[in-house]
Amino acid sequence: MSSRTSQSPDLSVADKLDNEIAILRSQVGSLKRELKLQATTLLTADSTREIIRQGPDDDSKARIMAQSDQQIAHKQQCLYRACASVTALKIRDPDPNAVDEGNVLGLRFEVMSKSRFIRPYYVMLNRPYPDSRRLRIHRHTVPPSIPLAGLAARHLPAPRSGNDDHNAPQEQDLSRFARALRRELVRYQNRVGVIGDLRNSAGLESKKGKRKEVEFPIVDISAADAEIKQIRIQWADEKTGRLVMDDDGHILKMVVQGENGRDRETVRDLLGGSVRIEELTKRMSGD
Amino acid sequence: MARLSVPTTARLPSSLRVDASTSAVTKVLNRLSRASLLSLVVDWLGESNQTLCPPLLRRDKEDDDDVDEFYPLAQSLEELRELYADMQAAKGSKREVVDRIVEGDWRMGLSLYQLAMADMRYLYDHPGSLKWIAYRIQQLKSPLNEAEADGAEKPDKETLAIPRFHPSTFLQNLQAEVLPDVKAHYNFDRPEGMPLWLLRIFILDSPYNTTLAVSNRTGDRATTSFDASRTLYIAFPDASPHIYISKSQSTGPAAPGESRSLHSLIVDGIPKALSRPRERYTLNKTNLSTKNLSGLLHIRGAGRTNAAGGGWGIYSELKPTDSPLNPILPTPPLSEDSSSEPMIDNRPVSRTHKRALGPEESRRERAIKRAKMAAQARFGSSAKVDDRKGMERLDIMIEDPFPNTPGVSAPQNEAEAGEAEELERSQSSKSKGRRSGLELEFEQVRDLAEIAGEGSREGTWKPNVRLTFQGSHVFAGIRQLVEAGVINGGRMPGWMTGEEGVSIGAVRDGRIRGHKGSGL
């Protein structure tokens, strides 16, 4: 800050004031958040509710009680979301021509990554079929790297039309679908996380000299395909490697291509008998 | 240069030089602006590009035979680099640069690689110059027995595999699919700021892959085969089972049928090149074509936004407050407490302002706010004018029967005036799917209207209605109309919000038909 003022001594008064206003605004924002947080905690506390209940009957009491009830409901929802990881919610389709009067069943998938909840994935289902209560996926926020269509075809089949009845229509199984999809989502998120871990342990993320002193350090680690089952590793001496893992992070294969063909030695050096990808991360970070 | 030109199936090499005086070459160069042309030349002179686009340099210092020519050759790369850097700093005409390239430093011809770079540069300078069609890559069921193998190919709906794309393998396989009498030059590039690979395919009608393919000495025809070349772009978005293919452009006059067949040849070859043994793919149209690549990436790319368009977008947005560990109640959008609105100083002003207004004014203000809320509910945070994800055309065909008010018989035999009246009445009543409110469209409708008797239900009248929305950002325009209260946000059909993610569709029962609604 001081260096900046010394660089531009003639920083105009207006600029200074603007800076000050911006700082004050952010302070106001954080204080407001703090206030809200304290208020919610107070509102949902049992003792507070008891005090309010004993207080005189008037308009404000009803209002505060209503808000408190709302808050408690929200708290319970959060508890379910945090613990159950797949929760259902009711959504109304805003389209006036929506099927089934706009009733939509939403499934919310909570996934954790780097020890925090990331934005949940949603799958919205509706009932578009006439004379059938079967569900179909209407909207979703699942990335295309997850085989949602295949899972839906397996667990939520559409009712068969009259002409092909060579095998009996399968039953829809929503809970199996949700479980299978959650599994895919968590595994995908874990694979994404592993790439970050690998980059960290190779010293690619931090700018400082955490990097190990090797002759040819690794210069890049990135995902090579949509499902993040293949990892591309690049060394400073133009060697490139490909590591293939399965759904659960077991290392299946690894090939390194050097200047003169395959470089099995680097593979042995890098893997050193690791079976899972996490073991490789540990090895690379220096044991 | 090879002495013999034998027809082969190999691809055209990047180092193949095209005569600089060909009209197609000057055309490609002249399309670029002076600034981008000069930065392109500087790229050509870069160290890594010297194998593919070396300039002509004077070899002999004593050899001063042609000093008096207009563009004397430079002696070293450094000299040339400086020369072009000076040109970048100075002002001048584009003509001067093009002449210098064509008649001076690259008088021996420009390599195909250089032409590809120039074309790519033009594409980056003018991102809206191509129309892209989005295709979905879908796996086919591998046949279990002989009979199935002979039958029609069926998509494998239950597959859990996600197609994978590897640029060099893909190219190798694609080359094997292209017929031997067509030669193509391929160039991969990664545009800045967009998560996709761009493949430029330059197609020539020639069996040779040497200079014979691009020279005009092949016969005494007026046009060389080079002039009848075609360029095709394919974009491969990262981590998305989609492909965007551009409409092909030809540099010269070519028979339309021929160019289409070449195009379809390539398009047919793409799924085969993506396929592997026991894993076959096909391309499916997704009813979406637009000129805006970043818009395409939004609804056919990686990430969460593919099947959550329009108002559903609120479920795919990144909001830090939506964690289950956050105990604060979510605030409704556009309310005074919604934190995202940085209007702290505006608020008290507007409040005092409102108090001073008369009842008429305040009602209008409320109506505007209601319209804004409706727009927010239907569009979410999508379809903003400045989001640069605009679709420039939306074609809708309405297949719904004409909405009858009960008690009124089908208006088959009524006069046009009657129809117009009916239209107005239906607008005010609870009609379906045609609440666009644009008189113009209705006039067109009246022109197009014909009595469709076939395939319709008893006593219904199905006019042939097609709606075309055109503009720089169609859905942002509709959103603005909703915000202005021209369109009733609550009763507007869903396809007008762009949540279906298509650019052409048929509407039945007020919904886009055939589209599976979810990108599935």
TrEMBL record, chain A:
It is found in: Chromosome, Centromere; Nucleus. Its main location: nucleus. This is Cenp-O kinetochore centromere component. InterPro entries: CENP-O (IPR018464). The keyword Nucleus applies. It comes from the Eukaryota. Belongs to the CENP-O/MCM21 family. Coiled coil: none annotated. GO terms for cellular component: Mis6-Sim4 complex; nucleus. It holds the Pfam family CENP-O. The lineage of its organism: Eukaryota, Fungi, Dikarya, Ascomycota, Pezizomycotina. Keywords: Centromere, Chromosome, Nucleus.
UniProtKB/TrEMBL annotation, chain B:
It holds the Pfam family CENP-N. GO terms for biological process: CENP-A containing chromatin assembly; chromosome segregation. Coiled coil: none annotated. Residues 329-366, 399-438 are annotated as: Disordered. Gene3D superfamilies: 3.10.20.720. It comes from the Eukaryota. InterPro entries: Chl4/mis15/CENP-N (IPR007902). This is Centromere protein Chl4/mis15/CENP-N. It comes from Pseudomassariella vexata. The lineage of its organism: Eukaryota, Fungi, Dikarya, Ascomycota, Pezizomycotina.
